[in-house]
Amino acid sequence: MAGGRTEVEHLDVLVVGAGISGIGAARYLKEHHPGKRFAVLEARAAVGGTWDLFRYPGVRSDSDLHTFGYEFKPWRDHQAIADADRILAYLREAVEENGLGPHIRYHHRVLGAEWSSERARWLVEIERTDTGERLRLSAGWLFSASGYYRYDEGFTPRFEGRERFAGTVVHPQHWPRDLDYADGKVAVIGSGATAVTLVPAMAREAGHVTMVQRTPTYIMPVPRGDALADRLRRVFGDERGHRMARRKNIWKSALVWRFCRRFPKAARGLIRRVTVAQLPAGYPVDEHFSPPYDPWDQRLCAAPDGDFFRAVRSGRASVVTDRIASFTEKGLLLESGREVEADVVVTATGLNLRLFGGVELTVDGAPVRLPDTVAYKGMMLSGVPNLAFAVGYTNTSWTLKVGLLCEHFCRLLEHMDARGYDICVPEPSDPGMPTRPLLDFAAGYVRRSVAELPRQGDRAPWLTSTGYTEDVALLRADRVADPELRFARAAAPVRTEASA
After folding, report:
1. Smallest Cα–Cα separation from 201: which of 311, 348, 53, 301?
2. Which of the 8 DSSP states describes residue 472?
3. Residue pLDDT, tens place only, 243-300
4. What is the largest CA-CA distance in the chain?
5. Residue 2 is assigned to a structural domain of this protein
6. What residue numbers bound the domain in which 294 lies?
7. What is the DSSP string of 276-339?
8. CATH number at residue 466
């Protein structure tokens, strides 16, 4: 590909993905670098990413939109924990208000990208998903905003006897538009955020919904609205009120997380008391709602206005904690011998991780093996020039980190422009630095794929921060130049500029 003679369009920055991260990156680029040529490539036919893809009942955020939304665009809706259609409308407004539409190219899937140090650019191979046509683009920088899971498939473990089941089996990531479960029996396999969302939503129409979980999850009732945020906007206006509500929720989230991590026994006890209060007297709370791990070893699940518990109290939903032995013609046979009958089985069994959308990367002809790389400031990879990526937080709102990463990326471009650099590559000064997984998180979907992901180091700037306050210092307040970040001009030796 790199040796091709055909002239291709050249861009300064190529953003991959038009979800919440890609739209944010495009807005920051347009705001801070209006003279740069950039495009956002989206494999699907619409913006929105997750929020346009997922169509299962009740799909919503599990973070408040004052922090999950953008810093530059106030969240004005009364729902703080918001339904997908409201989030999607918000994202479309962000595209329209910032004039980003002309920069977005739909039906463009990136297949591979080859870096040439001599030319200081990426040559990117693309497939048109609507026509099958192949084309190429050249870019000075790649910015991956495609998240870290596969959009084309979810994770479903192998279940013995599935072919015997006479009903319908669906995965939330591929929800049929015409699925009819009214007055029927539904079994939801799983206990994560998707299952906790599906159960109360489906219980409104189904005859009964049973959540079949192998391991309990911490579930906390949270207000769907944010009365204080609404008052702040009324008193101080949209812009200032949004900033105040955002700051309030950042600190609230950080305090909850730190309390859970520092005092896990107390946090476990508090969550148990809240759960007991949400359920009927005598309910077996310890059997179904007492995980074997501490709070925030995995993400806590939110139940807006306690909707999950309300569905259980009403009798329209129930929880079973057991292992599935096999499918039967009528439903699920559990290892205890119990059978859960179902007309519809929903496999809310998780996601498959795939960083950079599965794009194959090479640097000067050598393939990039992600497990051999270390993440620099949680946004670049060691030994890989002019590549940035956006991966948000796992313990609070995803977009909080993405905004800081986009700001830092724009500052980095400004630094390079001012000094005439074409190439930027992170390189650890200590090749023997101890490393651990980039996503240091106990969730099953992370554990299944951790060996395929980049690593993180044990010290800054190779240690990936999990806190917003720390990242404000690292990405917003700290200078761009760094002893372990190296710059060069095309066809020139790479050199350090730590003193700039």
Report:
1. 311
2. I
3. 999 999 999 999 999 999 999 999 999 999 999 999 999 999 999 999 999 998 888 8
4. 75
5. no
6. 156-349
7. HHHS-TT--HHHHS--SS-BTTBPPEEEETTHHHHHHHHTSEEEEE--EEEE-SSEEEETTS-E
8. 3.50.50.60
